[in-house]
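Input sequence (319 aa), recorded before submission:
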Amino acid sequence: MAETKVVLGQYKGIEVTKPFFEVTEEEIQVEFQKACALVAKNEEKTTEPAAIGDLLTIDFVGYLDGEPFPGGDGENFPLTLGSNTFIPGFEDQLVGAKAGDEVDVDLAFPENYHAKEFAGKPVVFKVKVNSIRTNTAPEMSDEVVQKVSQFKTVEEFHKFVHGEIYNSKKMEAAQLLEDEVLEKVMSGCMVEVPEEAIKERKLGLINSLTAQLQQSQMTLNEYMKYHNISQLEFDEYMERDAKTMLEGQAVLGKIAEIEGITCDDNELKRELAEMALSYHMDYEQIVDALGDEGKYMIRQDILTRKALDLIVAHAVVTE
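Predicted structure, token format:
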């Protein structure tokens, strides 16, 4: 296989702007609401109308051209309003209904509906609302704080939540800064990656994605349909992704070589030990599973990470 060619440009003294971030009181209140929801009381609505977020139990029959259609009915079906479980418009027409009401839900299937025989066609669902339940969340208080955390007061919990949001945004900002530095370094380099290498990496990415999808009991075709992309678009995306990854690795690898960056055996062992821990495997098992080629790839990953740390450390960052 032909070798990747790299001509480096500037990689030290790259000028970037530090991403701005702050923690707002609104963001903290959102987390407070989530905390209160954890201790919400689930109560039945007997006379109050249904609202978004309520859990309804319904019977329904769908009629297409005046006739019931297969798969369009159900009994005692649990439906949370706002969950978008049914086709668009269905749940909206149940807002305001009360327990015991019978509602005609009049709408049309989406034009891009997966079952082509129904796509775009008008339909009427005759729905009976059997019951409505709602979650009633308490106001934030010391009592709520003590139920959902190890803290005693709202003030302590407020400080904790602020810190968690701050740390999350700080990590996100660091990633954005890193991405911008690498992007500017890459823009000043010339890289030629062999087509064979791109095809090999593309195949590896597809195989990895397929394995991940299998864990979620989804096929690659279902994944593409869910994201509304064609086979051609998927192939083009995976090829671009493979090419971008290989170019980045080649540039960082070249920087590591020029700067004399190394990865000793102890660093490799620490990385392998962390991998074994994350995969719930013994150290010897992960070493055997990776083989010599796998260990070589891990070593290269360590070198490229060090090179990335170097160019970020030498960047000129302005506020």
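Checked by second reader. The helical segments are 25-38, 142-148, 154-187, 195-215, 220-226, 231-259, 265-278, 283-313.
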